[in-house]
Write a structure and sequence with these properties.
The structure holds 3 protein chains of 3 kinds. Chain B contains 12 helices and 12 strands. By secondary structure, chain B is of the alpha/beta class. Chain B has 2 domains: 243 residues, P-loop containing nucleotide triphosphate hydrolases (Rossmann fold); 74 residues, no CATH class. Chain B has an 8-stranded mixed sheet with strand order 6-7-8-3-9-10-12-11, sandwiched between helices. In chain B, strands 2-1-4-5 form a 4-stranded antiparallel sheet, covered by helices on one side. In chain B, helix 4 packs across helix 6. In chain B, 49% of the residues are buried. The longest helix of chain C is centred in the first third of the chain and has 37 residues. Classes of the chains: A alpha/beta, B alpha/beta, C mainly alpha. The interface between A and B is large, with 41 and 46 residues.
Chain lengths: 324, 323, 295
Amino acid sequence: MRAMINDDREAVLEVDNLQVRYPTASGDIVACKDVSLQVYRGETLGLVGESGCGKSTLAMAIMRLVTPPGRIVQGRVLLEGTDLLSLKEGALRQLRWQQIALIPQGAMSSLNPVMRIGEQIADGLRAHGVRQSKAQMRERIQDLLGTVGLRASVSDMYPHELSGGMKQRVCIAMAISLHPSIILADEPTSALDVVVQRLIVQTLMEIRERMSVSMLLIGHDMALQAQVVDRTAVMYAGMIVEIAPVQEIFSSPRHPYTRLLVESLPSVKRRKPLRVTEGFLLDLRDPPPGCAFQLRCDLVSDACRSLEPTLRHVGPDHHVACHL
Amino acid sequence: MTRALLDVRSISKVFGGGFLASPNRVVALDGVDLRIPENPATIVAVAGESGSGKTTLAKLILGFSKPTTGQILYKDQDVANLRGAQLLEYRRQVQAIFQDPYEVFNPFYKVDHAFDLVIKHFRLGANGANPQESIRTALQMTGLRSEDVLGRYAHQLSGGQRQRVMIARALMLRPQLILADEPVSMIDASLRAMILDILQRMRQEQSISFLYITHDLSTAYQISNRIYIMYRGWIVEQGETARVIENPQHPYLKLLIDSVPIPEPDHRWDTQISVTGTGGEEERDAACRFYSRCPVRTERCLAESPSLRPVAGEDHQVRCHLS
Amino acid sequence: MASTTLSPQAQPAETTRRLARVNWTLVLGTALLLGIIAFGTIGRLLVSREGMKLGANDFAAPPGAQIPLGTDPAGRSVLVMMIYGTLPTLTIGLIAGGIGTIVGASLGLVAGYYGGPIDTLVHSFADILLGVPSLLVLVVLASYLGDMSIATMSAIIAFFAWPWPARSVRSQTLSMRELAHVEMAKLSGCGDLEIIFRELMPNLLPYIATSFVRSVSGGIMASVGLQMLGLGSLTLITLALMLSSAFSSAALTRGLWWWWFPPTVVLTLLFVALFLITLSLDEATNPRLKAARAA
């Protein structure tokens, strides 16, 4: 698969055959099974999938923040060529935040409620070795807040004085504070109202422009992906099932699951009839042999029930994991 | 004009304030009027974001709290005055499904418990009727088989199955109105259509009306016949769904529609939206509740409260000075 | 909603499953407790009361082949007294803890569910009682009442045992009453009492169980305190009464270690057992504690 990538694009982040497992009393849950993807310089890669598909686990695994008892059992995560999984904790901590930043899910609720915003950002900066005078730090933080569209006075406020959208902007500010090459944003707008969501996305896009930072945007809202990303990777049951430029995902989806996602999207512009399907609870500890999607696929064949599909090249920059 | 099934008349709900209570006075609802006709069965959407008052409205209609002023009439009876047998009958005719398909189940019991409560209190086993059959039929209407869901705990079912079990529970009572509060926002995108399809079918086949409360305009547009748009306790626009969504008048609705991501990569957001207003004191007390965020506000909006006015004489009203 | 995490609502059901897995603290505590109970019950079947009668044996004899734990100055076998004194000690805890928990949990449920004036009344009363030095009041009460039966002693101790379960259950109820399944129950026509005792209480059993064990422990401790002061039940032999008699007869200076040391050991083991059980129940109901231990 790697031979197929466009050689004049440089990959900022490359994930190779990553597998994450969670041991439980009744068997191992394979949260991420053989995941490979690349995020090129300057692009925004979207990662979509539904609840339990493993996308958040993937984000944590890339940052090596998988909570025990979960663990990464195989694979590589190359950040600008360095394998994050082989680094010692100290070296990894240096890289985290400075070269790769994460805006985790529910970040706005994890702001320290008893510290002012400015202090929290300063803390983060100092923890990564930034040594500046108080005045310089203050100015730096105010610049940072301005970049994300917040007034300088926010620096002296406490989290509870801010709205959801403002708190999320603070989290974005923290993520860009050390000018990383890539930002992982896990559901950055899920808990927000629609209008605020648009404002936040606008902010992210501005930052992307201004700071030339690459982004991995993880979410479950396909429509949002359509508006924001360059390429999209679709995840199902711990596997990437399709990865292609976003226009192609919508105009010619090749995997039955992607097709399902695209067709079941309602729109405010057109009234479409509902596309109804049945859903089945997939037990990740004991998946059926073969393709994980077989229980919901209307094109399922015998091959699907026995052999697990891997990503195949089906078009320019378009890969699908399906036998059909 | 036919008798209304549900007639919400000038409802206001104020929290806090009062003589001895806390100083934080929140006006959750301010003079809300809403009507669901007795026939034909209709899906009425109430769309609004957090703070719009839609959840408060739901609680009032279900009788979980009382309005500060105004009345909620169900078939001409005031819901706030119902007691005993009358209240029970109201519960039989007006049911609900909620947002979180997991939380609605008591984790101590199997999901059957939800049905058992209904059978017991509404005496569905009386007169020789077989309650097990009623359960089976109700589940079938939602596309589930008894064998697949009964006897299990909530955590053993998928989100979609749980929500359908809840719908089946409501259907068992053969209600006239089901209040659906964000029924699909916690369901995976690919399964939402299935749930919404059930609602539409129930309207058609069982003549059940729905009050579909949501923040998602796309699904409201997809399935509802009439829509009410709420903002901070007001109804700012209402009417026949297609008319309202395709020809929005109120600046808030326009902003909302513009902000909903369209699943078409070739039609991206090209204009920037911005946050108007400084959130200062005078803006919060402006006569029009949307003043502080309105991109087209005028002096008049600060001083004079707009009222609902018709748009081009069709089934479409908007609450704005500038329409 | 990933498949590996559970919402807070799943915790009571998950708690039972967690308890079912081997939890060494619980196993150790229960084993110890069962051992003591066996000592007090099976012991009675094996050993006759005769050894406890006054003058049955040599006076103040140290441990020997015939009398395993020696005798007190009145010639009563220490071992026999201990065997027959264990059950009453446990019974006091059981009755006091039981009454305290039932009353406390019920009040907590009702107060938490209804809120308003009922809640204010109950929780103010509970808070006041918690602030009162209970042993002091018990001492006064016990002095006034003179010699009393085990049942009476348990009852007055229970009066101070109910506030803790009440508070614990009340705070849980306050957060649970807003849950969607409670609203669903209301929509299904359930009345208040049915909601309190059939919808809310079952999910609180782990908390009630923890409160119960705590109350039992506290009850026994209170009874020991009273009896050491020469109050409460004065005739029926309990472990505490043995200690009390020992100290008032200057056993320490007389070197009659076999009189006060064994009962102390048993009492200590009893408290340790109850503590271990409480600890494991606490961990089960509050998974964060277990995670902290594992980390």
